[in-house]
Specification:
The chain is about 40% helix and about 10% strand. It is built from 18 helices and twelve strands. The structure holds S-adenosylmethionine. The site of S-adenosylmethionine has 20 residues, from helix 14 and strand 6.
Length: about 500
């Protein structure tokens, strides 16, 4: 996955997990111990096992639900075997089998994949313990069928018999897995029988690859790592940034007003159907993602560069704050999204579709916000595919990009101007360490540490060095539903 594609989506388009799930009626079980499934969720039909093995794919039309299951299998394979990010596979130009599905089936596929990836560690553990011998490393398709079947049995409101029959049918219809029907059937039946026990122990199973957990334990310690993993297991709430009057919006949407002015709703909302969507009264943005732009202070009437701007959550904040904003973004498709988002919000900015490494501003800026491309490990609760598609060497590669970008951006600031650097990463190499390197190598810049006196609501998030640091699992203003992991540092140019 490229750094760009790993970028979070602060301004969410109508196609998102929440709304798809709402559309499909596929409500996930709440994760955690002792939460047995309630039955009678989405009707996948009552597929009968059988059907003819048809080589690759499923040429014959199958029982209801099978097309969705096949699309989910193909997409899960793309993500966990090939390392493709999930988001683009679920978009309009995404995976072919997915594109052909009805809106309801698309919703079902999104819900299955979200749960399968969010709980991948626990599901893998449950399957492994119920196999007589380990699966062949190359048995990717069989593994995916077992994972999706187990996901439905453990985490979605689908009757066990329907979920299991569908998995067995899907196995039987493909030559590569036709002989494993018995195994699929017996493993999934055991998982259904032992559901309570599996869910009770799920929290103790690591929900990310070992290399990531080892990093977090080294950097944040075991307790905070456990809190990060617990936060990842719960789907996040829906946070909105109001264009104006947060209290009015919170009341209008019956949401909770967070101390930074974000409005928090539960996640089962269709974003584009919420009041104020059409009129551009708010945009989707995690409460932590809304902090870096605020660190610039009073920007009204000032020239602000928003570097690495798409999809535009921070651009919107800056424009709404009265600044004259130049939004720099190198990806054309993401720039289109940024423009579309600002259009909906009736906000205007100057758009520069350019690479930060070749961009040349006509004049210097009063303020610069650099929201650099990063591993995005702070957004795993919103993108549960990330742990399974990231590689550690990407973090090493991105460090150099971030360092060079910061150094380049520093040249474009007026004397007295303020620079904020931010990443949505849990990795100190992309946050704290970058800030220290910049301070050491730029004596024309003085750090502007954040203090609780200036931002009382951020007291728990100001580090001793004066950085902003959030970790998933940290409560904000008494709201225990957590925030994304973010880092931000701030400097003033001396002359
Ligand atoms: C973390 S996202 C930005 C999120 C955005 N600031 C927001 O709040 O909505 C990083 C963005 O940087 C863009 N990007 C990556 N490398 C870039 C470069 N060299 N020049 C300009 N943009 C770049 C990516 O395409 C991506 O859209």
């Amino acid at each position: 996955m490229s750094a760009d594609e790993g970028a979070r989506r602060d301004v969410r388009e109508p196609h998102n997990t929440q709304e798809s799930r709402a559309a499909s009626g596929a409500r996930p079980h709440r994760s955690g111990a002792g939460k047995g499934p309630s039955k009678g969720g989405p009707k996948t039909g009552g597929p009968k096992t059988g059907g003819k093995a048809s080589g690759r794919g499923t040429a014959q039309p199958g029982p209801p639900g099978l097309a969705a299951r096949d699309a989910a299998t193909a997409i899960l394979l793309k993500v966990v075997r090939d390392g493709s990010p999930l988001g683009p596979l679920l978009e309009a130009g995404g995976a072919p089998g997915f594109r052909a599905l009805s809106a309801q089936d698309k919703g079902l596929v999104r819900a299955i994949l979200d749960a399968a990836l969010r709980h991948r560690g626990a599901i893998e553990d449950a399957i492994r313990k119920r196999l007589e011998r380990p699966l062949d490393e190359k048995a990717h398709r069989l593994s995916a069928l077992l994972h999706l079947g187990a996901t439905q049995v453990l985490y979605l409101d689908v009757p066990d018999h329907a979920a299991i029959n569908l998995a067995v049918t899907a196995a039987g219809r493909d030559r590569r897995t036709a002989k494993t029907k018995g195994l699929v059937n017996s493993v999934l039946r055991r998982i259904a029988r032992e559901r309570s026990e599996i869910l009770a122990s799920a929290a103790s199973v690591n929900g990310a690859p070992d290399w990531l957990i080892a990093r977090w334990e080294k950097n944040w310690g075991p307790e905070r790592t456990a809190a990060i993993l617990a936060a990842h297991a719960d789907a996040p709430p829906l946070d909105l940034t109001p264009k104006s009057d947060p209290a009015e919006l919170a009341e209008r949407l019956s949401g909770d007003l967070l101390p930074n002015g974000s409005v928090r709703l539960d996640r089962l909302h269709t974003v584009s159907k919420l009041p104020g969507y059409e009129t551009g009264d708010w945009w989707v943005q995690d409460a932590a993602a809304a902090i870096p732009a605020r660190l610039l202070g009073d920007i009204s009437g000032k020239r602000v560069a928003d570097l690495c701007a798409a999809p535009g959550g921070k651009t919107a904040q800056l424009v709404a704050g009265g600044a004259i904003v130049t939004a720099v973004e190198k990806s054309s498709s993401r720039m289109r999204r940024l423009k579309g988002n600002l259009e909906r919000l009736r906000l205007s900015a100057e758009f520069a579709e350019a690479d930060v490494f070749s961009f040349q501003p006509a004049e210097s800026f009063d303020f610069i916000l650099l929201d650099a491309p990063c591993s995005a490990t702070g957004t795993i609760r919103r993108h549960p595919d990330l742990p399974w598609t990231k590689r550690e060497d990407e973090i090493v590669m991105l460090r150099k990009v971030q360092q060079d970008m910061l150094a380049r951006a520093a040249n474009w600031l007026k004397p007295g101007g303020i620079l904020v650097y931010a990443t949505c990463s849990l990795e100190p190499e992309e946050g704290e360490e970058q800030a220290h390197i910049f301070t050491k190598s730029h004596d024309m810049f003085e750090p502007m540490p954040l203090h609780a006196a200036e931002f009382p609501e951020l007291q728990d998030f100001c580090t001793p060095e004066g950085f902003f640091r959030s970790l998933p699992g940290m409560a904000f203003g008494g709201d225990s539903r957590g925030v994304d992991g973010f880092f931000a540092a701030r400097w003033r140019r001396l002359n």
